[in-house]
Write a structure and sequence with these properties.
Layout lengths: L1 H7 L6 H8 L3 H17 L1 H11 L1 H18 L6 H11 L5 H10 L7 H8 L4 H40 L12 H5 L5 H32 L3 H17 L1 H11 L1 H20 L5 H29 L4 H30 L3 H19 L11 H4 L1
GO molecular function, one term: nitrate transmembrane transporter activity
Pfam families: MFS_1
InterPro entries: MFS (IPR011701), MFS_dom (IPR020846), MFS_trans_sf (IPR036259), NO3_transporter (IPR044772)
């Protein structure tokens, strides 16, 4: 999953340089870094269903091979429109999340799902790797060096997974699309989707837009901003297994209680520290840690909502998380172009965290498992 996430995040670390090269506005730059998130989000649901039906090894290998063509063609783009199309197609790399999580969850019992899926989530480190490496490669070799290098990495990963990964026997009776869609009837599916919209969406939004913020607010060079973003991603990713482990031990609702309070506090800290790098950095670190803990806690419950339909639930929740990463960069770009400041965007983040806090704790108990009638349908 790490190699796929490197591709998914490839435009973000060099967005500032591409803005200068193509003469983009702040909004156009925001749309460029958000475009991969859009396709990578909406396609997570069908990719999760495909994984339930055809197996993770086949689906993941096919996904990786699909990515090679747009990677090879991107160095030839000559306009913003073709650059945006490339970013959109490479967004398919983000669907590796639902494929990987569905594949991994089938190998372990429910009592270990939190920790195991948290460890699988370390594939998010691909975002940190691209944040650090892509600006360095771009500075030396330009777009060809970045995208041809990633194409080679993806081909190697596809070969290793195709001939090195195992596969559990598939069910004799294939699930129909209608059976998979039944997970949409469950309140827990939508509640977890909302929470993941905040936690994973926040993680993605910060990962793709933090280089832009650091360059504009504090004058950081692209390489330095990429390194700082890599640190944010690493902190959020490495703490994710702890979120899953704590959810296994004390319950996801208790973990999320602290997570939502922390996100609200971090957002307010960021809103009022746009000219103080040290306070801004502290706010980013706090937000990253809370995002990571929340991601692990939410996904501990995903395989338990509808056993036998893990791919469908993973796709819905994962799609919500991805969409949560699509809108904030665009909103921030609009706020910057219209009002000259990013502060209202962080205030909105704090308000949304408070809404999730209320939903989590105001007597709305989340079911750890929905009725098993889905499996028998």
């Amino acid at each position: 999953m790490a190699s796929s996430f490197m591709v998914w995040n490839v435009f973000s670390p060099i967005a500032g340089s591409l803005r200068e090269a193509f003469g983009l506005t702040a909004l156009q730059q925001s749309v460029l870094v958000a475009a991969p998130v859009l396709l990578g989000s909406v396609m997570r649901f069908p990719m999760g269903i495909f994984t339930d039906r055809f197996g993770g090894r086949r689906v993941f290998t096919s996904l990786l091979l699909f990515l090679v063509l747009p990677l090879l063609l991107t160095p030839f783009v000559s306009s913003y429109a073709t650059l945006l199309l490339s970013a959109f197609l490479l967004g398919m790399a983000g669907t590796a999340f639902s494929v990987s999580m569905t594949y991994v969850s089938k190998w372990y019992p429910p009592q270990k799902q939190g920790l195991v899926l948290g460890l699988a989530g370390l594939g998010n480190l691909g975002v940190a790797m691209s944040s650090f490496l892509v600006p360095l490669v771009y500075r030396q070799y330009g777009l060809p060096g970045v995208f041809y290098g990633l194409a080679g990495l993806i081909l190697v990963t596809a070969a290793l997974f195709r001939w090195g990964a195992g596969e559990l026997p598939l069910p004799e009776k294939k699930q129909t699309v209608q059976e998979s869609l039944k997970v949409l009837r469950f309140r827990s599916t939508w509640l977890l989707s909302l929470f993941y919209f905040l936690t994973f969406g926040g993680f993605v939004a910060f990962s793709v837009y933090l280089p832009t913020l650091l360059k504009e607010l504090f004058g950081m060079a692209a390489a330095d901003a990429g390194l700082a973003t890599a640190g944010f991603v690493a902190a959020a990713t490495f703490i994710r297994p702890l979120g899953g482990y704590l959810a296994d031990r004390i319950g996801s609702r208790q973990v999320l209680l602290g997570v939502f309070i922390g996100i609200a506090g971090a957002a307010l800290l960021l809103a009022f520290s746009l000219k103080d790098f040290r306070i801004f950095a502290a706010g980013c670190l706090l937000a990253g840690l809370c995002f990571g803990l929340g991601n692990g806690a939410v996904f501990k419950m995903v395989p338990e909502i509808a056993p036998g339909h893990t791919g469908a639930v993973t796709g819905v929740v994962g799609a919500a998380g991805g969409v949560g990463g699509f809108f904030p960069p665009i909103v921030l770009g609009l706020l910057r172009d219209s009002g000259g400041t990013y502060m209202p965007g962080f205030v909105l983040l704090a308000l949304f965290a408070c809404i999730c806090l209320w939903l989590n704790g105001a007597g709305r108990r989340m079911k750890e498992r929905e009725p098993a009638k889905v499996s028998a349908a």
